[in-house]
C-alpha cells in the first residue's frame, strides 16, 4: 500500500500531465450524498482523513485540508502536517484559500460530478479575482492514480413493497408528471438517491446506513421514466415491479441521455443536482429550469402506510432499546462496560428483533466527557470506560424495512451531580415544550426552535446544533426539507411543517470535558382539533417509546403540565413496550415509568 | 376643484402627449418614506384614496387601484368604481396585472424617483413577457396636470441637541467614513430621511408624525458631506451646527451631484434608495456598490443619552396615558364618549405635558368591533360610541424631543365576557413571555416571535401582524432593521438583536365584528448577567409604564412567574407614574397597580 506522500505526489504528476495547476477534492458522490460508497472515498484515500465531512485542495507547492469544528482534533491525528495544511471551515472557505494561494493564471481543476453549479460559480468568481480559472475535468484525476480503487457496489435493488410505501410508483410518477405539466416542462432529472428510491419504490445496499442504490432517473411529463442503474443490479422481480413505463438503462448512459434532450424544458434541482447535470443538459440544447426535486416534499410527508410502518418499527426498536437500558442499569455499576461494548450490545439487541436491516447511522456511544462531543464516533482508539457517577449518552437508530428510527437517551451511572440534574431537567423542559407545541398550518420549523432552547437560555446555556431534522421512511435518517432550527448557524428551518412529516426533537446540553446530555424522540406532525380554533392547527405526536432517566429529573423545576407530560409519556412507554419485556426487564421498566413520586417532587 | 373623472382624463391626455401607454402611481416619496408630505400625495389626488398604503396603474382604457386587506372596504368607499377597478395585493401585483392588461408593445411609464430598482427590474421583466416596456419618465406626469399641487414643506430644520443625540454629527460621519474605508469606497448616498436626520443631528417638520426634513446627503470617505436641502430651510444656527465639513447644497442639485461622481466607488442601499439614484450614478460613470445604508444599524442601537432621553419621555408619556385611562374609567360608563372624543382627550393629555412635538402616528382609537380592525384610523364617518360591556383599544404615541413613544392598552367598559378575559389573558401571557425572554447574543427577532403567540396558538388563535417593530429616537415610530416577526407573511425578523435596540412588544387578538385586544409596551434590548452563563446573554427592559386592565385578567390562567411579573410591573408603574398624579387619579392608579389579589386568583 502506497504512502500518503506517494499518493499526493502521484496526483500532482497526474495534474501536471493534464496541465492543471490544482485540484479540489470534496467528500461526496455524484448524488451529493451524506454517506458515500467506498468507491467515492477519494478524500480518505488521498489524505487519510476518516471524518464524515471535509474537502481538500492540491496545488503544485501546497495542499490544504478543510474540516469543520467537529474534526479539528481528528484531522491532526489522521492527516500528516508535512503534506497538508489544516484549514477550518466556515472561517476559511476553499474559495478564500484559493484566492490567496493560487498562482495568477492558474488552471484549477474540479470534478463537475461532485459539486453543485452554485459552488462552481462562487469558486470561479473567487479565482477570477486572482486571475485564475476553474476548469471542469472530464474524468477524476484521483481515479487515474488510485490503482486499487473499489468498484461501485454491485448490490441488487430490492422492491419496496407497496404495502409499506402506501402508493404505487406509477402513482408517484403521475404526481410528478402533473407537477411537470403545471410548469410546462417536459421532464425532471432526479439524482438524489433517496428521491429515486422513493419514486420507484425500490431500495438498495450501495451506501452504508441508507438503503439506496446508485442510480439516476429522468421522469417525463407522460409519467414514463428512465432509470439509469447498472443492469447487473436488477433482478427479474425488480424488472417486473418497474413495469413497462420505466426503461432501465445503464448508469453510464445517463450523461448521454441528458445530451439527447435538445429543445426540451427540463427541471433540475440546483441544490441536489451536480454541476455536470446542468452542463450536459445545456450542451445538448435543453432549456434548464431550476426547481426543487419534485420528490422531496411528497417523500417528506408520510402517508398512512408509511406512518403505520414507522410505528411498528418504533414498537420493536423501543423494546430493543429498553432491553439495552435495563442491561446497562445492571452491568454499568460494575465498571466493566466501555463505549464500544455498550454500542455492540445495543446493536445486538436490535439485531435480535430479526428485522434489523442496518443501523440508521453510526451509534454515538459517549461516556463522560465523550458525551460532550456532539458527533462523537467511538473507535478502538477512543473507547472509554463507562465509570461511576458519570453520564452516558447513547444516540442510535435502526433501519427496518417498515421504518427508520433515531433516538437518544442520557443515563446517569451512579449518582448524578445537582448540576447534571439541573441541566438535564432544562433540556427535558425544552423537549416537552416542543412536544406539546400547537401551531397554525404554515408555521415553519425554525419558528418553533426557541421553545426547546428557552429554559437553557434562561440559565445562560445553549446547544450548538439544530433541534430537529426530518427522517425518512426506510430511507435517510437525515431527510429534508423540513428542519426545526433557526439562527445564523442553523439555517434550513424555513420549510412549513405539514401533517405527516416526521422530525426529531433533540435538544441537548454539552459541558466540554465533563458530560453531554441529549434527549431525542421522533415526532410526527399531525392535524390537531382545537375547540374553537379559528384556523387549521397542527401539533406533534411522539413516536419514540423509551424511558427517560428519572434520577436525572429535578422534579421541583417542572410545572404541573410538564409533570403530567412525563407521567403520560411513561405510561405510554409501559403500555407499548411493557408487553414485549419479561422478568427483571419488565419490572425495571415498570419502576422507570411509574409516575414521578412525591419524594422526587421535592 | 376638479372631479376624479377630470383628473384621470387629464392624466391620460398628458400620457398621450408623452407617447406613453400607461403610468404607475405609487404612494411614496423620493425617500421611500412611510409617511409622505402633501406634495407627494399623488395617489390621493388622482383617486380619492386616503389610506396609508396603495398604488394605481392607468392605461388608456383601464385603470386599477391596488390595496391590501386593510383597505378592502375603505377603497370602495373612497374610490369610484366607474373609474377604477379594485385589485388586492399581494394576491394581484401591479406586474401581474400589467402582464394581463398592457397592450403588446405598450410603453408603460414610471417615475424612477418613486420606485426601487428591484421593483423596476421585476416590472420590466413582467412587461417583457407581454412584449411591453417600462419607461422611466424625466418628470412626473401627474405633477403636470395637478394645478394646485402643494409645494414641498418649507419648514425649517432644527438642530437636535448633542445632549440628546449622545454623539456629534462629526463623530457619526467619521464612523461612516471608516466604514467606507473598510469597503474601499469613496462615498455613501443617504436618501432615507431618518438616516439623514440621525447622521447630521437635525430634525425637521416636512412630514406628518415623523420629525424629518426633505433632504439627500452624500457622505465622503474623508468624513465631509454634502447635504442637499432647500436653502431657505436652513437658519444660521443650523449652518453653525453643521460646520465647515458639511456643504449645504440645494435639493435640486442632488441629481447633478450624483452624475458628477465619475470614477468613484459609491455605496447606495437597494432597499432604501430609489432607482433614479442608481441610474444617475451609473450615467455619471460612478461604480455603484450595493450595501445597506451605513446609518441604519448605529441609528437602531441607541446610545446612553438616547436611552436616557427615551426614559424621560416615557415617564411623561406614561403619566399622560394614566390620566387618560383614569378619565376614561370615569367618563366611559356614562356612555357619552366616542372614539374621536377619546382620542382627542388623549391628545390633549399628552399636549398638556408642554413637551409634545407631534403624535408619533395617527391614534388608533377602536371601540368594540372597530378594535378588531388592526390599522383602524378613526374619522368623523367611522366614529363609534364607546358603549357598555365592550372593549376599547387605544394604540397611540407621542413625539417628544427626547424620545418617541408607542403604547397600546385595551380596557373593558362595563363587564367583559369570559371569552374576552380568556383571550386577553392569553395575549398577556405572550406579552410577558417575550418581556421575560433571555437569549444569547446573535439571536434574531424572528426567533422570539413564537414566545408571544404560543398561548393563543394553544387555543387555535393567532394575530395577523408581527409582534414587534423597532422605534426611533425622536424619529420614525417604525424603524428598522430589527423586528420580532417570523413566518411567511411577516418577514424582516432576520436581524440579530443588539443591546440598545428599542422594539415594541405587541401581541394581540382580533375577533372580527366583535372586539380587538392588543397589549403593547416598548422594550429595550440589554445585556443580561446570568450567573454561570456560558455565552453573552441579552434580555429586555420594559420601557413603557401604564396599568394593564386587571378586570380583563383571568388570574387562574397565570402561573406564579407570570403573576409575579404583573405585580412587579404594576409596582414599577406606581413608582414611576404615581408621583406625577394627584387626587382621584392617584388613588385610581393605586387600585389598578395593587398586587393581583386572592379573589382574582380564582
Description:
The structure is a homodimer of 602-residue chains. Chain A contains 19 helices and 28 strands. With 602 residues, the first copy, chain A, is α+β, with helices and mostly antiparallel strands. A 6-stranded mixed sheet of chain A has the order 4-3-2-1-5-6. A 6-stranded mixed sheet of chain A has the order 12-11-10-8-13-14. A 4-stranded antiparallel sheet of chain A has the order 21-28-27-24. The mean pLDDT of chain A is 95. Chain A is globular and about 75 Å long. In chain A, β22 and β23 (479-484) form a beta hairpin. The first copy, chain A, is 34% helix and 20% strand. Chain A starts with a helix and ends in a 9-residue tail after the last helix.
- Residue-averaged pLDDT of chain A, rounded? 95
Which structural class do you get from the secondary structure elements of chain A? alpha+beta
- Strand tally of chain A is 28
Radius of gyration of chain A: 25 Å
Outline of the structure:
The structure is a homodimer. Helix content of chain A is about 35%, strand content about 20%.
Give the secondary structure arrangement, pairings included.
Two copies of one chain form a homodimer.
Chain A: H1 4-17, E1 22-26, H2 42-47, E2 55-58, E3 63-67, H3 72-78, E4 85-88, H4 94-101, E5 107-110, H5 117-129, E6 133-136, H6 141-145, E7 158-159, H7 162-165, H8 169-182, E8 187-190, H9 193-200, E9 202-203, E10 216-220, E11 225-228, H10 236-242, E12 246-249, H11 254-259, E13 265-268, H12 275-283, E14 287-290, H13 296-300, H14 304-331, H15 339-351, E15 356-359, E16 364-367, E17 390-396, E18 398-400, E19 403-404, E20 407-413, H16 418-435, E21 438-440, H17 445-457, E22 468-470, E23 479-484, E24 502-505, E25 508-511, E26 515-518, E27 521-528, E28 537-542, H18 560-577, H19 583-593
Parallel strand pairs in A: 1-5, 3-4, 5-6, 8-13, 11-12, 13-14
Antiparallel strand pairs in A: 1-2, 2-3, 7-9, 8-10, 10-11, 15-18, 16-17, 17-20, 18-19, 21-28, 22-23, 24-27, 25-26, 27-28
Helix pairs in contact in A: 4-5, 14-15, 14-19, 16-17, 18-19
Amino acid at each position: 500500500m502506497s504512502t500518503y506522500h506517494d499518493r499526493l505526489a502521484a496526483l500532482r504528476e497526474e495534474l501536471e500531465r493534464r496541465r492543471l495547476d490544482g485540484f479540489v477534492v470534496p467528500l461526496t458522490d455524484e448524488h451529493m450524498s451524506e454517506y458515500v460508497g467506498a468507491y467515492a472515498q477519494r478524500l480518505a484515500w488521498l489524505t487519510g482523513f476518516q471524518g464524515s465531512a471535509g474537502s481538500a485542495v492540491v496545488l503544485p507547492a501546497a495542499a490544504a485540508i478543510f474540516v469543520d469544528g467537529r474534526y479539528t482534533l481528528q484531522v491532526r491525528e489522521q492527516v500528516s502536517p508535512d503534506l497538508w495544511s489544516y484549514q477550518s471551515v466556515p472561517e476559511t472557505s476553499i474559495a478564500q484559500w484559493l484566492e490567496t494561494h493560487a498562482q495568477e493564471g492558474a488552471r484549477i481543476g474540479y470534478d463537475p460530478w461532485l459539486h453543485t453549479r452554485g459552488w462552481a460559480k462562487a469558486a470561479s468568481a473567487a479565482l477570477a479575482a486572482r486571475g485564475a480559472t476553474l476548469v471542469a475535468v472530464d474524468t477524476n484525476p484521483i481515479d487515474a492514480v488510485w490503482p486499487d480503487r473499489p468498484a461501485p457496489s454491485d448490490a441488487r435493488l430490492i422492491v419496496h413493497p407497496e404495502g409499506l410505501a402506501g402508493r404505487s410508483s406509477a402513482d408517484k410518477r403521475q404526481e410528478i408528471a402533473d407537477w411537470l405539466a403545471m410548469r410546462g416542462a417536459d421532464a425532471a432529472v432526479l439524482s438524489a438517491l433517496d428521491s429515486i428510491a422513493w419514486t420507484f419504490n425500490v431500495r438498495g445496499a450501495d451506501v452504508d446506513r441508507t438503503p439506496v442504490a446508485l442510480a439516476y432517473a429522468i421522469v417525463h411529463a407522460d409519467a414514463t421514466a428512465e432509470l439509469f442503474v447498472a443492469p447487473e443490479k436488477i433482478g427479474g422481480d425488480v424488472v417486473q415491479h418497474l413495469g413497462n413505463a420505466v426503461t432501465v438503462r445503464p448508469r453510464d448512459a445517463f450523461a448521454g441521455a441528458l445530451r439527447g434532450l435538445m429543445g426540451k424544458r427540463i427541471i433540475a434541482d440546483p441544490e441536489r443536482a451536480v454541476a455536470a447535470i446542468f452542463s450536459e443538459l445545456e450542451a445538448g440544447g435543453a432549456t434548464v429550469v431550476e426547481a426543487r426535486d419534485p420528490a422531496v416534499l411528497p417523500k417528506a410527508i408520510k402517508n398512512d402506510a408509511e406512518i403505520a410502518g414507522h410505528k411498528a418499527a418504533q414498537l420493536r426498536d423501543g423494546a430493543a432499546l429498553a432491553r439495552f437500558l435495563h442491561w446497562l442499569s445492571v452491568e454499568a455499576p460494575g465498571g466493566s462496560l466501555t463505549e464500544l461494548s455498550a454500542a455492540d450490545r445495543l446493536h445486538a439487541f436490535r439485531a435480535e428483533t430479526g428485522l434489523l436491516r442496518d443501523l440508521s447511522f453510526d451509534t454515538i456511544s459517549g461516556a463522560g466527557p465523550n458525551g460532550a462531543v456532539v458527533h462523537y464516533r467511538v473507535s478502538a482508539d477512543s473507547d472509554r470506560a463507562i465509570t461511576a457517577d458519570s453520564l452516558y449518552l447513547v444516540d442510535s437508530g435502526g433501519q427496518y424495512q417498515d421504518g427508520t428510527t433515531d433516538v437518544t437517551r442520557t443515563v446517569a451511572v451512579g449518582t448524578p451531580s445537582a448540576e447534571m440534574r439541573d441541566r438535564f431537567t432544562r433540556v427535558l423542559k425544552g423537549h416537552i415544550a416542543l412536544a406539546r407545541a400547537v401551531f397554525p398550518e404554515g408555521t415553519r420549523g425554525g419558528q418553533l426552535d426557541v421553545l426547546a432552547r428557552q429554559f437553557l437560555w434562561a440559565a445562560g446555556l445553549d446547544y450548538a446544533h439544530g433541534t430537529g431534522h426530518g427522517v425518512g421512511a426506510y430511507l435517510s435518517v437525515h431527510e429534508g426539507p423540513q428542519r426545526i432550527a433557526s439562527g445564523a448557524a442553523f439555517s434550513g428551518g424555513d420549510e412549513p411543517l405539514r401533517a405527516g412529516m416526521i422530525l426529531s426533537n433533540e435538544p441537548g446540553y454539552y459541558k466540554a470535558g465533563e458530560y453531554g446530555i441529549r434527549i431525542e424522540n421522533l415526532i410526527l406532525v399531525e392535524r390537531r382539533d382545537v375547540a374553537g380554533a379559528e384556523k387549521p392547527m397542527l401539533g406533534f405526536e411522539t413516536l419514540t417509546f423509551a424511558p427517560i432517566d428519572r434520577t436525572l429529573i429535578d422534579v421541583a423545576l417542572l410545572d404541573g403540565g410538564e409533570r403530567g407530560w412525563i407521567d403520560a409519556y411513561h405510561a405510554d412507554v409501559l403500555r407499548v413496550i411493557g408487553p414485549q419485556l419479561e422478568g427483571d426487564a419488565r419490572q425495571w421498566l415498570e419502576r422507570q415509568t411509574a409516575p414521578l413520586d412525591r419524594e422526587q417532587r421535592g
